[in-house]
Specification:
Helices cover 37% and strands 10% of the residues. It is α+β, with helices and mostly antiparallel strands and 451 residues long. The longest helix has 32 residues. The protein is globular. The N terminus is likely disordered.
């Protein structure tokens, strides 16, 4: 292939060209819309609490009770470099870090012995080749050979870097689903901040298991822009999953804090309370808020973080998984016919969404549904998910199974529903045999030809 002068000009200009969707992404965690709608005096403590508990993208923080694997690393000071009075950093070589991640900048370093025991520094520089760490000078620390310390969030940082490389451009820095390329994707990337994932092996009231999210990362989601990352190692996939769960816990904690404050201290409510009809003064509302922040907010924060963390931890227990009580009913013509009758029955009402022939054109697609968050009608006809996206029911003849192609995957979709969507759970109303008949019928539809 020969290049002319015009090709050369294009190559020279290429670094200067800005393509849509390729702009520099935001490098701070995004706060939720509801947080921004709080009074500034209420939003401020919420933001401060989130920064304290989770840090920011380049200075991660952890707190006790999180179910994710942070991979903290214990190390020992080997030698300390001499530094002048005008130098702002202390540098020292350490042992014990050779097998850890090679990018530790920004992580918390907790001194576990020596003068600084109990004090936390931030790693400003790290040279993996020499094992040299630099931290800010402080009157509280005076590193000496033999002093020990703990570098926190090492594995979390590994997951963050992998996420930023492979996932952030679609899902956003905070997992909010608004990365630079998200505007071009349909369906849009998942917003992780509600902690809700559609395709899981768990019961309808349980979070996703780590294995569920790992399967999604490795397999991708058929029929969407979510690709497969099978070329990543198991350790890399696990690190990404842990970071995604961490982003979910951050988002869920924020939501719980917002929900606690919103009914009394949103900007709209504040305006109503201090209006002539409301009868309260600005000072009275602020004094009430001040009392709440001093007396109740610490407990609210503790409950929010602990309850969210416990829910994620419980999801990995064995009893959270949907496991059929009986083996699959043989896939026979008789079973499919029983499944077809169930599909068309009032007992399941599958046809109301998926259509009488499974083409995704049921009568529900023509109705204007109500948004449960606002109690207002959606502007467009048809079903919507919990994120507010329009959600056409699946055309079952296409044979595209976003939650997995195995019979057990379809069984679990029927048993527990699909979280965050109008797809209901039938585990409490259908027997195992009936569920398997439906599985056999639905999974056979792509092979029946045009009807």
């Amino acid at each position: 292939m020969r290049f002319g002068f015009s090709h050369l000009i294009l190559l020279l200009l290429f670094p200067l060209i800005s393509f849509p969707g390729c702009e520099q992404p935001q490098v701070e965690f995004v706060f939720a819309k509801k947080t921004k709608e709080l009074m500034p005096e209420a939003a401020g403590p919420v933001k401060a609490a989130l920064v304290k508990q989770f840090g920011n993208p380049f200075a991660l923080t952890q707190f006790e009770g999180l179910p994710t694997n942070f991979g903290d690393v214990q190390a020992t000071v080997k030698t300390v470099e001499a530094s002048g009075a005008d130098q702002p950093l202390i540098r020292f070589q350490a042992t014990g870090l050779a097998d850890s991640y090679d990018k530790l900048q920004g992580l918390p370093l907790e001194w576990t012995s020596g003068k600084g025991q109990g004090h936390i520094s931030r790693i400003k520089e790290y040279n993996f080749e020499t094992g040299t760490i630099a931290v800010e000078k402080s009157a509280e620390i005076d590193p000496q050979p033999g002093d020990t310390f703990l570098v926190e969030c090492v594995r979390l940082q590994f997951g963050r870097d992998l996420y930023n490389r492979h996932c952030m451009h679609c899902h956003g820095m905070s997992g909010e689903g608004t990365g630079p390329t998200s505007r071009y994707l349909n369906p849009p990337p998942r917003d992780f901040r509600l902690g809700i994932y559609k395709y899981t092996s768990t019961k309808s009231t349980s979070k996703a298991q780590e294995a569920d999210l790992g399967r999604t990362v490795k397999e991708g989601i058929a029929g969407t822009y979510m690709p497969s990352f099978k070329l990543l190692t198991e350790d890399e996939v696990s690190a990404i999953v842990n970071y995604v769960i961490w982003l979910s816990i951050r988002g869920e904690t924020e939501k719980k804090l917002d929900d606690e404050l919103f009914l009394d201290y949103s900007k709209e409510v504040f305006a109503e309370r201090t209006s002539e009809e409301g009868g309260e003064t600005r000072e009275e509302v602020l004094e009430e808020l001040k009392d709440f922040m001093e007396e109740d907010f610490p407990d609210t924060l503790e409950f929010s973080t602990s309850s969210v963390s416990e829910a994620w931890e419980e999801a990995n227990l064995e009893d959270a998984v949907v496991i059929p009580k009986t083996a699959r009913v043989p896939d026979t013509a008789e079973s499919r016919e029983r499944g077809r009758k169930l599909y068309l029955s009032e007992k399941t009402k599958c046809a109301s969404c998926h259509g009488p022939q499974g083409r995704g054109n049921g009568t529900a697609t023509q109705d204007f549904w109500t948004n449960p968050a606002t109690n207002e009608k959606y502007p467009n006809r048809g079903l919507h998910d919990i994120w507010g996206n329009q959600l056409p029911p699946r055309d079952l003849h296409r044979g595209i199974y976003r939650g997995g192609r195995r019979p057990i995957d379809t069984y679990r979709r029927l048993f527990a529903g699909i979280k965050g969507t109008p797809m209901p759970a039938f585990g409490g109303s259908l027997s195992d045999a009936e569920l398997w008949d439906l599985v056999n019928y639905v999974m056979n539809l792509p092979y029946e030809g045009n009807r």
